[in-house]
Amino acid sequence: MSKFINPFTDIGFKKIFGQSITKNLLIDFLNDLLEGEKHIADITFLDKEQMPIYDGDRGLIYDIYCTTETGEKIIVEMQNKYQDRFKERSLYYLSQAVVRQGERGTKWQYDIKAVYGVFFMNFRLSTSKGRFRTDVILADRDTHELFIDKMRFIFLELPSFCKEEDECVNDFERWIYVLKNMETLKRMPFKAQKSVFDELEKIVDISALSKEERLKYDESIKIYRDNLAIASGQRKLGHKEGFEEGFGEGIERGIEKGIEKGIKKERQEIAFKMKSSGMTPEQIMQMTGLSLKEIREL
User: Fold this and answer.
1) Contact criterion met (CB below 8 Å) for 270 and 84
2) Pick from 161, 191, 207: which residue ends a domain?
3) Which partner for 254 in 53, 156, 245, 291 could form a disulfide, CB atoms 3.0-4.6 Å apart?
4) Under a CB-based contact definition with an 8 Å cutoff, are residues 56 and 268 in contact?
5) Residue 157 contacts by C-beta under 8 Å, 6 or more apart in sequence?
6) Do 76 and 54 belong to one domain?
C-alpha cells in the first residue's frame, strides 16, 4: 500500500497545490520554477468557474487558477492523457484569462497583467523531442528578443524527466522528482535540503487523511485509474485497427490511420457529452476540433 497520495488525482493535486491553508507549497514551487526571474510573495486562489471547464475532461485534467500579489494570473494544470490539440487548448485558456481583464468604458487603456500557464503533462508533446521543459514566450521571429511579457506557456513533460534522487541538482528538479515518484516513495526525500518537503510529507501522508478525505481520495483514485484504462484501451484499439488495415496499404500507414480513428472516436464521445450538457455546437467545435456537421450528426 502507498504511503503518500497520488498527486496526479484530482484530490491529490488540489491537496498539494489548491488549498489556501497550504498555498505556501504552490508559492514555493512557482518560485523554484521561475528562479532568477521573479519572486512571488503571495497568491490568491480565484473561482474555478472563471475557467472554461467542461465535463469531457473530468478525471483527466485538474487545474488551479490564482493571482499573485501584483495581479499576474497563473493557471497551473495537470493533464493526465494525451490530447490531440493540447497546445491549442492551452492557448485558448490563457487567452481567456487575458480577455477577462478587459473593462468597459474609455478609461481602461489595456492595462493587462501577465498570464502564466504551467502545464504538467503525463504524456509527451509530439514536438518536444524528449525535452522535459518547454518554455514558450512571445518573441520576435528573427532577433528572438522578447516582444511582450504578458503571456507565457511552461510545459512540463513528466515522462521525459528521468533523473534519480541523487541526480537532482536544484530545488525545482527536487520538486519534480517528488511529484513524479510520490506514490511509490517510502520516505520523503530532500527534507535536509529544504524544509518545505518536511511540510509536504505531512500534507500527503495517506494515514493523516480524515475519514471523509480518505473516501474522496479513494474515489479520485478510482476515477483516475478508470480513465487511464479507457485511454489505454483506445490506444490499443487504434493499433489493432491499424494493424488490420496495414496488410492492404502498408503496416505503418495502417497503424497511423487506426490511431487517428481511435482519437477521432474519443473526440466524438467527448463532444456528445458536451452536447448533452447544453454546450453550443460552436463551443464544442472550438474545444474538440470536430466540424459543425460532425457535431450536428452526433
Assistant:
1) no
2) 207
3) 245
4) no
5) 121, 123, 124, 125, 128, 131, 132, 133, 134
6) yes
Backbone angles phi, psi at 37, to 5 degrees: -110, -50
Distance CA 237, CA 215 (A): 33
Q: Residues 39-74, buried b or exposed e (16+ Cβ, 10 A)? A: ebeebeebeeeebeebebbebbbbbbbbbbeeebbb
Pairing of strands 43-45, 61-68: antiparallel
- Tell me: pLDDT of 287 over 80: no
Identity at 137, one-letter amino acid code: I
Phi and psi at residue 162, to the nearest 5°: -120, 10
What is the rounded CA–CA span in Å between residue 114 and residue 231?
34
Q: In what order do the strands lie in the sheet with 133-139?
A: 43-45, 61-68, 73-79, 115-121, 146-157, 133-139
Burial readout 227-257 (b: 16 or more C-beta within 10 A, e: otherwise): bbeebeebbebbbebbeebbeeeeeeebbeb
Residue 120 grid cell: 504538467
Cell readout for 231 is 485511454
β strands within the chain, DSSP E: 43-45, 61-68, 73-79, 115-121, 133-139, 146-157
pLDDT tens digits for range 213-269: 999 888 888 877 776 666 665 555 555 555 555 555 555 555 555 656 666 777 787
Residue 1 belongs to some domain of the structure: no
Domain limits at 236?
Answer: 213-296
193 with 221, same domain?
no
Asked if residues 268 and 289 have their Cβ atoms less than 8 Å apart, the reply is: no
At residue 30, does pLDDT exceed 70?
A: yes
> Is 185:178 a contact under the CB 8 Å cutoff?
yes
pTM (two decimals): 0.74
The burial of 175, by beta-carbon neighbours within 10 Å (0-12 exposed, 13-18 middle, 19 or more buried), is given as: buried
Q: Give the separation between CA 251 and CA 162, rounded to whole angstroms.
A: 32
Q: What domain count does the chain have? A: 2
